[in-house]
Amino acid sequence: MSDVKNTPFYSKHILLHAKLVPFAGFLMPMLYEGIVPEHKAVRTSVGIFDVSHMGEFYVDGPGALDFIQRMTTNDASTLSIGQVQYSSMLYDNGGIVDDLLVYRMPDKYMLVVNASNLDKDFEWLKSHLPADGVGFSNVSDDIALLAIQGPRAQNVLQKLVNYDLEQMKYYHHADIEVSGEKMLVSRTGYTGEDGFELYMPTSVAEKVWDIIMEAGQQNNIKPCGLGARDTLRLEMKYALYGNDMDEKFNPYEAGLGWIVKLAKGDFIGRETIIDAKANGLKRKLVCFELQERGFPRHEYKVFKDGIEVGFVTSGTFSPMLEKGIGLAYVPPEISKSGNTFDIQVRNVKIPAVVVKPPFWKHGSVRVNR
Hints:
Elements: E1 5-6, H1 10-15, E2 19-23, E3 26-31, H2 35-44, E4 47-50, E5 55-60, H3 64-71, E6 84-90, E7 96-104, E8 109-113, H4 118-127, E9 135-138, E10 143-149, H5 153-158, E11 173-178, E12 181-186, E13 195-201, H6 205-215, E14 222-224, H7 226-235, H8 270-278, E15 284-290, E16 301-304, E17 307-317, E18 324-330, E19 340-345, E20 348-355
Parallel strand pairs: 1-3, 4-14
Antiparallel strand pairs: 2-3, 4-10, 5-8, 5-9, 6-7, 7-8, 10-13, 11-12, 12-13, 15-18, 15-20, 16-17, 16-19, 17-18, 19-20
Helix pairs in contact: 2-7
């Protein structure tokens, strides 16, 4: 564990007696009070997450946009300054390198990538850089990142900023001072609730944590760990790299066709996924609910009429719905809402039904990620 790094908020996790686990090269809080109370705090009020393990890259120079257009599936040319875009990167064979966020700043772009893929993504992008015209740097170690999530998130943060947060649209960002500290604040989220991300210098991380926790006391703010982050994102059908998508799946199979903009022109993997879609998809990622009590898990098998037809990618017992829910790859012919199949949970096959996403339909953010 000697090569596992601490985030800039490590001392706060220790003081709060968090259960720390190695994750993506960092020692991260899995939970504090417990997954269920942390989950419900975000759904009903507000929670705070240390997400400093995420990776941040800067792309600048006259060729920056062309480079991003070639490397990602969405159309970054549509971004105005202050806007954020959800996108993905593909291999030549159409498999997914990673999903990511693209931030358009006045003088550059910021790419926010998954922690587990940070080094891989950096090398992938670096290997495709043109000879000149594009600057590319990894600034992950210089940035501490907090996510404030929940229907009361705006109320908490507004106390600390001289900026009307009501004017910040979903998937936008701005440079704001939080209690006198300059940082980039965005409004995206990975929970289905309203919320903000604070990208700050590591030197002010502990100070900002304390300020936010104090400002959130009236709303019973809770620190939340990776466990609640996973159950919250799953209730919204937000895909997780390494579970629900990776290099073996193309974006159409993974339900990410909406971030593929073929009309923008060439990008890596474009022709392959056009062919794959034209030839008919062999599998699709679907949402399912168990019809009996159970806890579906990653890689559990899916059966239809006694025949194995697919597998679970993510699963949990939903704290809000109080039933087993999950995502699974199944053949297209049984992928429509209302279709049924069985999930093998240990030695028992439990009936499941395909449902329309998201599982939790009462979040304070209703816009698709």
